[in-house]
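Researcher: Structure prediction, please.
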Amino acid sequence: MNELQEPTFGIDELCTLSGVARRTVRFYTQKGLLDPPEGERRGAYYTRHHLEQLLFIRKWQAAGVSLERIRRLLQGEEAGLPPSMPEPGTIEVWSRVTLRPGLEIHLEPGRLGLTPEEVRELLNRLTRAAFDAGSSS
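Model: Predicted structure follows.
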């Protein structure tokens, strides 16, 4: 019987597929964000699991989530928990959006765990709701 083998990648192929630099892959491994490669030295290789980890990291980084929080998410330490409070000295970028005069929303997408697309959708819905509420008065 012909068993399908899971694809494996060298570091260069992994970097190409994930869009992450070689140096960054090593940094993520050192910081515990990415599992070490399988095998040893020149025979080391990466699997689909490693690629999924890198894509997960990139997605959350694009949403503004800290590497420490991403590490905890990858390790399952935060499943279902609300975002943690930032450490002293953490820099966050908050957005202040005026929905209509007298009504603003302040949000930090990283704490919410939202992608840029999800933020746009949320703001669109809130803007529509605020407009509907204002036109019915």
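Model: Residues 116-135 form the longest helix (20 residues).
Researcher: Thanks, that helps.
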